[in-house]
Amino acid sequence: MTSAVIKDQPTGFSPAQYITCLNGIVWREALRFLHQRERFVSALVRPLVWLFIFAAGFRQVLGISIIPPYETYILYEVYIAPGLMAMIQLFNGMQSSLSMVYDREMGNMRTLLVSPLPRWYLLFCKLLAGTAVSLLQVYAFLLIAWLWDIVPPPIGYLTVLPALILSGLMLGALGMLISSGIKQLENFAGVMNFVIFPMFFASSALYPLWRVQEGSPVLYYVCLFNPFTHAVELIRFALYGQINWISLAVVGGCTAAFMIGAVFAYDPSRGLSRRGPAGGET
Amino acid sequence: MTATDAPLAGQTPPDSHRRSSPAEMPALSIDGVSHSYGVRRALIDINFTVAPASFTALLGLNGAGKSTLFSLVTRLFGIQAGRIGIFGHDIGLEPGEALRLLGVVFQPRTLDLDLSVTQNLLYHAALHGIDRREARLRAGEVLARIGLADRAGSKVRDLSGGQMRRLEIARALLHRPRLLLLDEATVGLDVKARADILGHVRRLVAEQGIGVLWATHLFDEIIPSDDLVVLHQGRVLARGPVARIIADTGTQDINASFKRLTETAAGFGSLSP
Question: pTM score, two decimals?
Fold first, then answer.
């Protein structure tokens, strides 16, 4: 066959090819997740420990007044459930970012990056795949929480889905952005300590912001500007069939900003080329 | 520097990656490409082409810049200077069109060890927009061709090194590329596995008309009928048919030619592989 044939090949990609690519990336991410049963178990155990132990211990200490979206007094377990759902997504986003660093170190990432489809689209698919995996974990958590008598309105299980998708995208995009800046796998744990714990504790996941404001006005503003706070509030309101518009705007804006940053960082003329080939290559 | 500067047989001038008539279009054209990591210059003004249906060996020691060049051709790195064309498509301007014509086997293993042989192929097919049904057909074909049909359901982790490499080559061919890049594809394999893989790739050139760029530091993988590019410390020292390079350097074999070229370029004689 000569190169004359090349001229006759179709150019561009059809919508069906884009969808095939998306399906393939989500399928592979799901397969990897299912193969790593320990990951699934640990993803569930973490929030359940908070729910069963931490919340039970603090139930009598931390009183929760009636604040939207709640219409009556609630148990502390009920209050922290949305925060724990967001925590699952936060850890999942960081796990995905760890996986990207690992793939980059091991070479698997190249398979993705040399695909002829646009790189921004490939990264977006990767992000969607990570979010899909986080949804499985969150709904598994909700099922167990239901057994623990944390029962939102039935419609809440449906209305929370868009909120979970958006918050999952935001936290996944943040993880992707972070992964672009981590040069070695060994540095990952350190970086995570500076991301996961401050984000989680300086938020409304464990205590309402009015209580934080009473304790420390400075910390209150830190919590207020923390995107994770808005992910938690978006989920909390959606679980009760309501929309927190400010949180929606913040989460949507941060998702776009983190995603643009990640695409920029993974652009071939930017991030990767500055590091040189992987170890052993020349 | 002593450099044999004869272009490869049937090749067009350096700026030929711009659209010319299809029959003259090189599979790969590299025009004036340079690349640096900070102040360290990894590639300096690289020029050569690979013709369709040809086997071109890219010979260089470790550190010569082969993997950097591959990273540029596959767009893992952005091009800092120069241009790279794949069948006339500029990798910087038309990456999608260029990459769909390209199959790559990287130096490190890039398979997902926890997935099966078939699952790895299906994932690759999806990344090229090939639907599941067609992908399964092609996966069956390529696995039969490389003798791994009976391992289709096996986890990649359970394959031998040689089988993994053959699988990577099969995967690189799944989307039916017209140019195949292989970066040190036989490193770490035993003699038989190396010979099998090299023979398979040469058959692809002869039977399917695929252009191949084969990066290596092993002289015994090069035969007199090959085209050759000698890369040393980021520079092309010689390019052309192997026989011509041997004749031009006044030596008896490619090993001696390489030694002569690198000694002359570096000004000292301790670079023999």
Answer: 0.81
